[in-house]
Amino acid sequence: MEIERKYLINKLPEQLERFPFREIEQGYLCTDPVVRIRRTDDSYTLTYKGRGLMVREEYNLPLTKEAFEHMKPKTDGIFIRKRRYLIPYDESLTIELDIFYGELAPLQLAEVEFQTEEEAVSFLPPEWFGEDVTFSSEYHNSTLSKRKPFAT
Question: What does the domain layout of the chain look like in residue ranges?
Fold first, then answer.
């Protein structure tokens, strides 16, 4: 089960370069239900996500690089590319800050995953977060993959 809140970003945190990051690229074989392939640095996964906004099912299976490359041309829409910074927050939470490249630039989103719905509901975001878009499917990556590129 995935329990997460999602926010647009008003401004990037100071000294962003000091935090670890991952390079991610992902595409969607299907968006209803969500079936995604993802490369995170040198790791590859196939993911199924159920319906929902703040809470939904999620299953991850490992892929080989060859399987990922085989499925990549079969994806629909925009192939998403982003850098994900991992920013510690409080004692037990990590902010996953995504900075999108290519067609989805200059979009910036932050996600925070929780162990329980109660934690998610009571979460107080840092002031550099912008609008809470948790309950908008418009900002699911599967929806973004179907979107026209942002104007620059």
Answer: 2-144
